[in-house]
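Risk mitigation, structural track. In case the binding assays with manganese (II) ion fail to produce interpretable data, a predicted complex structure has been prepared as a fallback.
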Amino acid sequence: MPRFQQLRNDKSSSECSVDQLSGDQTLKDYHSKRNFKTTKEPEGGIEKKKGDGKIFVIQEHHARRLHYDFRLERDGVLKSWAVPKGIPESTNEKRLAVETEDHPIEYAKFEGNIPEGQYGAGTVTIWDKGTYETKVWDEKMIEFTLNGKRLRGRYVLVRLKRAGEKSWLMLKGKE
Ligand code: MN
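Fallback model:
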C-alpha cells in the first residue's frame, strides 16, 4: 500500500521521475530509519549510475555494540553489511557480515556522532576506504578486490542460506 512519508522540499517537481521513484525505493529503509533534522548523516539520494561502482568504505561504528560497516558502491547506492568482529585480514578468518539497508553514496564521507535516541546512535569513523573491482556479483556470492589503505587484495562474501537471508560470511581470498 502506498503511504505518504514526507514532503521533499529539496526537489522541484521537474526532478520527480520514475527513475527517481525506483531510487527512493532503494533508500526507503535508510530514510525511514532516520530523522534528518536530528542526525548529521546525509539524506542523499540515488545517483544515476548503474552497475559497478568504484568506491568502498569501512566505517568503525561505536553503536550499542561496536561493529564495522562495510559498504560497496553499486547501482548508485552503497550496498552495506555490518561486520561485528571486523574485516578478516588473513585467509583463515571467517567473519559474519549482516546485510543492512542501502546507504546513499555520500555516506562514504560520513564521520561523526549520531545523537542519542537516533538509529545507530554512537560515533562513526572511517576505518578504511578506497576503490574496488568486482569479479563476481550474484545472489549467492560477491567476489572483489579491494584497493584501500589498510585492506588490499581479494575478498569474498558468501550468502549463508540457512542462517537467514541477511547473513553472509566474509572471507579473505588467497592471492
Ligand atoms: Mn552501523
